[in-house]
Amino acid sequence: MPPDLLFAFVSDTRNDPLWCDNVETVDQIEGDGVEAGARFRFHQHLDRPRSDRIEFDADVVIIDVGPRTITWQVTDKFQDRNIQLIVEPDGAGSKITQITEASFQRPPGLAKWAYPLLARRTFKGQFAQLAAYFEGLGAK
Q1: How far from chain centre, in Å, is Cα 65?
Q2: Each residue's pLDDT tens digit, 33-47
Q3: What is the C-alpha to C-alpha distance for residues 35 and 56, in angstroms, rounded to an integer?
């Protein structure tokens, strides 16, 4: 997948329900597409191990958009996160790097050490789904 095409897809958070299992809907609240200051509301869920699903909304604001780099600020009832996503060429394809800094208001019913493990598993699964999504389109 060419980096510019991949970046155009992943930087538009309205596409998240196509490749992020935990994101159910995304509504644009402010702005017009992918631009600094645009604001979105996500309805998402967290599946805790051996427990019930937790559903919640998140407020997502685009802080900065550069060439194949985007930074979001995400706020939900558990935490505030700054997420930077970088798409770079990698051989004939692309490489995605995600950097997340989070501060907890309260953990989502998990031990402090468990949430980073769950988040890492969630992100790994999302990127696997993203690869499968593009493979399904016949893109290489």
Answers
A1: 15
A2: 999 999 999 998 877
A3: 24
